[in-house]
Design goal:
Largest sheet: 9 strands, mixed
Strand content: 15-25%
Distance between the termini: 30 Å
Structural class: alpha/beta
Radius of gyration: 21 Å
Order of helices and strands: EHEHEHEHHEHEHHEEHEEEHEHEHHEEHH
Shape: globular
């Protein structure tokens, strides 16, 4: 099973924390939609023997496209790839784009899952992040969306400057009041070249507090688990049967094709990524070329990738798989590196599966990098 990711590189305005690739000019929107469809056609041979299980519209802000554009792109996937009978088709959307008329159009289209960028239900947080919606729009769109869609995910951000534990808990409670079956939640991070980075540098806002973010993370885990959610990946919580198939495919190392500027692809042995520039992308596609770079993953790269993704999930890292796919030297190295984390109760081994403990979850990326191999070949 595999997936198609479609990157829509347009946004109404730039959020202060975002370093994804997008343009706030919609001038080339129609040209871009045609180019995305053409890239699918140019790359159809990559998935000759694969069945497509998930189609994911990410960005940017896919909800800036018209319903006709979205239908056309879904049709292009079906035209060029072998799609299973009932694929998960997710559209990322922002609350300010989701009035009842639009939600109804989505509900009458092949889209069967909405991922809504709420981020916070508090006005001051949304203003600090420079989000295009306000708190009322966030609540109103969820009240309507839940009438038409069963499978909804929302994004929430924790670790905001001056966000108390009580305020964060209130955000979670508000989300739970809408009976949303999936929540993706991320710590606010400072990426270079973003407005947030400049604001912290110039001391317009206070530096982010890692201890506070860790407290928020544990409040989130406790509150969501109390309410029947499974913490199946570091940033993702779902009710049973509502895990994101797109996310799972990514974390379990399945193949996917990324369509559009800056989109990444993975086929198990190599990773490729398209140019992060709309004009260069459009020019190349017009010349029947896919403007991408490829990195062939060495055995060590594949090992490191498996450690990184495995430790983030409830499925962990299979020590049997390490031995059969990578060999005994890799397994010995992993045992050696993991030892101190096991004795500090940050990692645990159950049924020959290495996993993070509750205490180790927040630190899983850092722990993973310490288990990485630089070179054994």
């Amino acid at each position: 099973m595999s997936g198609i990711y479609i990157h829509i590189p347009f946004c109404k305005q730039a959020c202060h924390y975002c370093d994804f690739h997008f343009s706030t000019s919609m001038k080339k929107k129609e040209e871009m939609v045609l180019a995305l469809a053409k890239e699918m056609e140019l790359r159809k041979d990559e998935f000759q023997n694969e069945e497509v299980e998930t189609i994911y519209f990410g960005g940017g802000t896919p909800s800036v496209l018209s319903i006709d554009d979205i239908r056309f792109l879904i049709h292009s996937v079906y035209k060029n790839y072998n799609v299973i009978e009932n694929p998960e088709i997710t559209l990322e959307a922002n609350p300010d784009d989701l009035d009842e008329e639009t939600i109804l159009k989505y509900a009458n289209s092949p889209i069967n899952r909405l991922s809504i960028g709420i981020q916070s239900f508090f006005e001051d947080d949304l203003q600090l992040m420079n989000r295009a919606h306000n708190s009322e729009e966030a609540k109103r769109c969820l009240a309507v969306a839940t009438q038409y869609f069963d499978n909804i995910s929302i994004d929430l951000i924790y670790g905001m400057p001056n966000m108390s534990n009580e305020k964060w808990l209130q955000n979670i409670k508000t989300a739970l009041s809408f009976n949303i079956p999936h929540i993706s939640s991320y710590a606010l991070t400072v990426e270079p070249k973003t407005a947030l980075y400049k604001m912290i540098k110039s001391e317009t806002i206070s530096t982010l507090d890692d201890d506070l973010a860790q407290q928020h993370f544990h409040i989130l885990i406790d509150k969501l688990q109390e309410n029947g959610f499974v913490h199946y990946e570091l940033s993702n919580f779902g009710k049973p049967d509502y895990f994101s198939k797109n996310n799972i495919a990514y974390w379990l190392g399945k193949k996917y094709i990324g369509i559009g500027p800056s989109a990444h692809s993975f086929n198990g042995k190599s990773r490729s990524w398209n140019v992060s520039n709309n004009s260069l992308y459009l020019k190349a596609i017009a010349e029947n070329k896919v403007p991408s770079e490829t990195e062939i993953l060495s055995k060590t790269d594949q090992y490191n990738e498996y450690i990184m993704t495995g430790l983030r999930t409830i499925w962990g890292v299979s020590l049997d798989k390490i031995e059969t796919e990578f060999g005994s030297r890799y397994l010995e190295y992993l045992h050696q590196q993991a030892e101190k984390y096991i004795s500090d109760n940050l990692l645990t081994v159950e049924n020959n599966i290495l996993k993070t403990t509750k205490k180790g979850k927040f630190l899983s990326d850092g722990i993973a990098s310490d288990l990485f191999l630089l070179n054994l070949e």
